[in-house]
Input
Amino acid sequence: MSIDTDTARKVAKLARIRVAEADLPALAQELSGILGFMEQLNEVDVTGIEPMTSVTPMRLRRRADVVTDGNMQAAVLANAPDAREGFFAVPKVME
Output
C-alpha cells in the first residue's frame, strides 16, 4: 500500500503534528514503509503459537490477598489540605 502526500497531510492533521509542506513527501514515504512492513508481518504463519508478554517465560510475583482494615488513617490524611474529625473536608459544591 502506498501513501500519497494528501494522505500524509491528513494523518499529520489527525495526529495534530505540524509538518512543513516540504517534509510531506518524506513522511508519506516513511508511512508507506511502515505499512509495507506490516503487510510483511501479516504474511507470517503464526498458527499454533501462543502470544507472549515477554521474551523470557516468567511469572509475576503476587502478594497474599489478605483483607485488612488499613490502619493508616493518619498517614492518608497527612497530605490532605483540610481534614476534620478523621475525614477529608471538601468545600460545599451545591447550595
Remarks:
- DSSP finds three helices and two strands in the chain.
- The mean pLDDT is 90.
- Residues 5 and 42 are 25 Å apart (CA to CA).
